[in-house]
Specification:
Blueprint lengths: L8 H29 L4 H24 L2 H25 L1 E3 L2 E6 L6 E3 H19 L2 H4 L2 H19 L4 H17 L4 H24 L6 H14 L6 H13 L23 H34 L3 H25 L17 H20 L20
Antiparallel strand pairs: 1-2, 2-3
Helix pairs in contact: 1-2, 1-11, 2-13, 3-4, 3-6, 4-6, 4-7, 4-12, 4-13, 6-7, 6-8, 7-8, 7-12, 10-11, 11-12, 12-13
């Protein structure tokens, strides 16, 4: 079977270890969710998570088998699809916890978070544009606006009303990919200013017309609760901190978390707190270690890629996973306000797992090309990951 698995072996091992490990905390942390919103059958939730993981690994394997160059052309086709799905989600999406972020998959009854799909497509699209477009056109703000910048603003703008943290992460990583790809710093400052102005306008309009979105009040409450520290409204963060404190060094053991019964999002947003309570400081540090190792492998693959597109797509899709992971960890330990970001490959959820696996598969595809290609064979020029043109 190993003969069919190619690319960076370390990355494969990390992804599989995190996926297999997730079965224990998801099974344990789902007990509260199962009794509150289901029939009380925790095993069914574990089985659902296993199906999501299995499908994710299949998508990862399929993506890693493709030549990563093909993803650039595919992203051009999927970019309008992603925008249409975001528009549909904004107006007709499925609402959970006062946030409209999902659409229902026909016949299966599952929900799909379109922002996760749009994020991966956008990173590939940006990488392709920067790799294929002549440098003089890239340096021109006017010439690059419609084809490059408008999709970024469109994706972030459509996600913003229901999910500020995801929109902010996508915008920040897009800026980083643009910087590494040689986009002028002066133009990046224009984009940053435009993004801040757009956010300010959205907040003003929402405050003036509350029916537009209820998320501004949610953002305000979360920041106030975070700053207040001991307010009763900071309930879920307090429970997460209690879980982490009670885990001590070696934890209470698998399935023995107490705070999972009180955490509203115990199997997704706050699953790291459950992990530390059950597996202790040792388990919590090991999870962080694997994400750090994941980041290192991404940087190595990006640096060694012989093509500019390979470098940029590895950084764009890879850092999206890493930043999301560390935001989730930061929320769990109360370093950041509550954001609603899940822990990649560990938290329960279908679309997050699937798109994370697709992103990893694309990175693995880039790693497959490293020993086989040379600069002369590449369709696009190589890039120095740490040098800005």
């Amino acid at each position: 079977m190993l003969t069919y698995i190619k690319g960076d072996k370390t990355l494969w091992v990390i992804a599989i270890i995190l996926a297999l490990f997730s079965m224990m905390p998801v099974y344990s942390a789902s007990s509260n969710i199962a009794f509150m919103y289901g029939s009380g059958n925790t095993f069914s939730m574990l089985a659902k998570h296993a199906v999501h993981l299995s499908l994710g690994l299949i998508l990862m394997y399929a993506a890693h088998n493709m030549n990563y160059r093909h993803f650039g052309a595919i992203s051009v086709i999927l970019m309008p699809v992603a925008l249409l799905l975001l528009v549909y989600t904004l107006f007709q999406g499925h609402t959970v916890s006062n946030a409209t972020r999902w659409i229902r998959i026909p016949f299966l009854g599952w929900t799909f978070q379109t922002s996760a799909f749009a994020s991966v497509v956008l990173m590939i699209y940006i990488s392709r544009y920067l790799a294929k477009t002549p440098s003089e056109k890239i340096r021109s703000f006017k010439q690059s606006f419609a084809a490059l910048l408008l999709p970024i603003f469109a994706v972030c703008g459509l996600i913003l009303p229901s999910n500020f943290s995801t929109a902010a992460l996508i915008f920040a990583i897009s800026m980083l990919v643009l910087f590494i790809g040689g986009y002028p710093i002066k133009n990046l400052l224009y984009i940053a200013g435009g993004g801040i102005a757009a956010l300010g306008l959205f907040i003003v309009l929402t405050l003036a017309f509350p029916n537009m979105s209820n998320r501004v009040s949610t953002w305000k409450a979360r920041i106030e609760n975070y700053n207040s520290g001991d307010k009763a409204d900071n309930y879920q963060v307090h429970k997460a901190k209690m879980a982490i404190a009670e885990g001590q060094i070696i934890g209470k053991g698998p399935g023995k978390s107490v705070q999972k019964n009180f955490l509203p999002q115990s199997n997704s947003d706050f699953i790291y707190a459950v992990i530390v309570e059950e597996f202790g400081l040792i388990g919590g540090v090991l999870v962080i270690f694997f994400y750090v190792l994941f980041m290192i492998r991404i940087l190595i693959i990006a640096t060694k890629s012989p093509t500019k597109f390979g470098t940029l797509v590895a950084i764009g899709t890879g850092l999206g996973i890493i930043v999301q992971a560390f935001v989730n960890l930061g929320v769990a330990v109360n370093l950041l306000p509550v954001t609603g970001q899940t822990l990649p490959l560990i938290s329960a959820g279908g679309s997050s797992i699937w798109m994370t696996c697709v992103a990893i598969g694309i990175i693995l595809s880039v790693s497959r090309g490293i020993p086989e290609e040379s600069d002369e064979e590449a369709n696009v020029e190589p890039v120095n990951t740490f040098a800005h043109a």
